[in-house]
Amino acid sequence: MDWGNVTAEDLVDALREVDWSSPPRPLSEFFSRFTVPRSYAKWNSRLKCNLYYYRTNYFILIVSVLILGFLWRPLAIVAAILTALSTAFLNDSFAGTFSEKVTRTVRQFSPHLAAKMRPPLTPVIRGRPSARRAIYICGQPRWVFVLTFSAASFFFWFVSCGLLMVSWALAIGLLATILHASFRTPNLKARLNTFREEFRAVWRNYSEL
User: How does the UniProt record describe the way this protein sits in the membrane (predicted)?
Assistant: First the structure.
């Protein structure tokens, strides 16, 4: 496979469609042999080949750097959790499941409070439920929880300087990935792997005809 003719868009599409459940490459292979590319074309081809072949290793590397950054700023972990929850509340299924589990837990300690956390009844128009059903979380409109958690996450991001930390950690992880992919010499296994993936793609296209 000629990686020099592969565009960045093709590489992104391939990484999006490829199976990410494959285990990472062994460290003995990951840190095996490094050489300086002789030309820009060689570097371009090597970079794309290694990004595709060592994709799981690079993903673990970036996540590990981010985790170390979060450990350096513990409040950033709280900010990240609040940001994830405020985003997840926009999903109807998650909002309903979260509200049900919280209400069920509260009912064990205070049934009276749990009764107040029930969502209001759906209005009925001409014998049929209204088509527009608002989402409630613990008896409150969803936007209340989204705004509350978003404001809290913004506060913790600001206090912990977490955004700057995450940006630096992500930049370090990406820089380490690009440096490794640029100087790691593609071995025979990497080339055979790309040929196998190319064959699978061609075979999948023929099977769809």
Answer: Multi-pass membrane protein
Retrieve residue 143's tokens: 């936007």
Amino acid at 59: F
- pLDDT tens figures, 166-183: 888 889 999 999 999 999
CA 130 to chain CA centroid, Å, is 36
> Given a cut of 90, is residue 160 above it in pLDDT?
no
Contact between 74 and 165 under an 8 Å Cβ cutoff? The reply is: no
Helix crossing, 162-183 with 40-53: angle to 10°? Answer: 110
Residues 25-47 as b/e (b if ≥16 CB within 10 A, e otherwise) read: beeebeeeeeeeeeeeeebbbbb
User: In terms of pTM, does the model score above 0.85?
Assistant: no
